[in-house]
Design brief:
three-stranded parallel β-sheet, TIM Barrel
Length: 220
């Protein structure tokens, strides 16, 4: 397997420059495309400038295009990328980075050639080692709580101390602090900042408040 020797340093730097902007990355599941810009605006105004829009809904890519146009200062990731075809769609929509729940060899092979950096999803040391041999050093840890949470990440740091993670899955205001205290955690992702009830009610003020609290609370 020939690996581009440039990959680790440039890719790691790109992802670090994005994740250093935010300790908390809100995960957006956008059901109505017209919610995209007001929702993202509320989060950014609250101080959270790195957002992940998941491909779990039909309007997700259109939502990304609209958010990118309205909020050029924000970094927008496309999440739940499962295939190289979806990775390509994320590139075309203007994504700043892509996030996968788990990662296949096909995604790693595509990722090393893509202009858009990938935050590959891993849940085990073996998966981490696969990403490592493709030159990846930054990973999403998913599903975090179900996969051993803080204890698992502490254990990962033994054999592979240079790897750093953005845990997602089961993270909330109560446990985010425990993750962010770990040396190998750069940020956490979660949907708790965009509760369905507030989005459905179009309560952008309420979401701005949640974002502001998280931004202030977790800003180290």
């Amino acid at each position: 397997m020939s690996i581009d020797k440039q990959l680790p340093s440039t890719r790691t730097t790109e992802l670090d420059s994005i994740t250093l902007k935010a300790e908390v990355i809100p995960v957006l599941v956008i059901q109505r495309v017209e919610d995209a810009v007001p929702l993202a605006t509320a989060l950014v105004e609250g101080g959270l400038t790195v957002l992940e829009v998941t491909l779990r809904t039909d309007c997700a890519l259109e939502a990304v295009r609209r958010i990118k146009a309205a909020l050029p200062q924000a970094s927008i990731g496309v999440g739940t990328v499962l295939t190289p075809a979806q990775y390509r769609q994320a590139e075309q929509a203007g994504a700043d980075f892509v996030v996968t729940p788990g990662t296949t060899e096909a995604l790693y092979r595509y990722g090393v050639t893509s202009p858009v950096p990938m935050l590959p999803g891993v849940a085990t040391v073996s998966e981490l080692m696969t990403g490592w041999q493709y030159g990846y050093r930054r990973f999403k840890f998913f599903p975090a709580e179900a996969s051993g949470g803080v204890k698992a990440l502490k254990a990962f740091a033994g054999p592979i101390p240079e790897a750093r993670f953005c845990p997602t899955g089961g993270i909330n205001l109560d446990n985010a602090e425990d993750y962010l205290a770990l040396k190998n955690v750069m940020s956490v992702g979660g949907s708790w900042l965009t509760p369905n009830s507030l989005v459905e009610a179009e309560d952008w003020h309420g979401i701005r408040q949640l974002a502001r609290e998280a931004a202030q609370h977790f800003h180290h």
